[in-house]
Amino acid sequence: MLKVIDLRPIPTVMVTVDPRDINVVKERILSSIKGKCYSGIFKHPTGNLANSIRAYVIGNSIFIYTNAPEAEAVEEGVRPHTMWYLLNKTIPIRTFEFGIERLTFRRASLKSYLRGAWRHPGTEGQHIFRDGIQEGLAQSSEELAGYEVTVRG
User: Fold this and answer.
1) pLDDT per residue over 54-100, tens digit each?
2) Does pTM top 0.85 for this prediction?
3) How many Cβ atoms sit within 10 Å of the Cβ of residue 66?
């Protein structure tokens, strides 16, 4: 997943591009996105998604990216579907009872699929990138005075 934030000086306002300002904006956006990951949206956060988010600056653009495969599902959500990709696999299932984690195993057989099992109910998108970028830009309004901001991706 890749998000690009372009900062272009407004032609009518004479602004010299200060790379330190862009780095400050980048750090605020990055900390805002990572803060969203730890804000309680996940039941049992591991920190994998937050630790995989990176950002860098090229010219007047801030590139925010992650290689985590779950990033797009967390951002956009998942539609309800039958989990055919689990067919004939043994699946470990974690349950939490009274604060104790218990691990059980189930086999995803064709018979269980025909009975209607192994349906994913779907999830709504958490929009951690979209909201984190907007929050970081709002915190950086002073550094962004005189810039036109565009978010792509």
Assistant:
1) 998 888 888 999 999 889 999 999 999 999 999 999 999 988 888 88
2) no
3) 23
> Based on the number of CB atoms within 10 Å of its own CB, is 56 exposed (0-12), middle (13-18) or buried (19 or more)?
exposed
CB atoms within 10 A of CB 42: 15
Residue 6 has pLDDT above 80, yes or no: no
The closest of 117, 96, 115, 121 to 106, measured between CA atoms, is: 117
DSSP tag of 84: G
Among the listed residues 40, 37, 43, the one whose alpha carbon sits nearest the alpha carbon of residue 71:
37
Q: What sign has the CA pseudo-torsion 31, 25, 22, 133?
A: positive
Q: Average per-residue pLDDT in the chain? A: 86
Sorted by sequence, the CB contacts under 8 Å of residue 126 that are 6+ apart come out as 36, 41, 74, 75, 77
Question: Taking the CB of residue 76, how many other CB atoms lie within 10 A of it?
Answer: 16
